[in-house]
Amino acid sequence: MKLATSWNFKFLDLKESQNINKDEYLYLDQVHSSRVHYLSNEDKFKESPLASADIFAVEKKTFKNINKPLLIKTADCLPIVMLDKKQEKAALVHAGWRGLARGAHRVLIDQGFFLARELSCYVGPSLNGKYFEVAEDLRQQFPKYKDNGLIFKIITGSKGKFYFYPWKLVELEFRELNVAQINISNTSTYANKAYASYRRSCHQRRPLDKEQRNFTILF
Question: Which CATH class is domain 9-126+179-218?
Answer without folding.
Answer: alpha beta
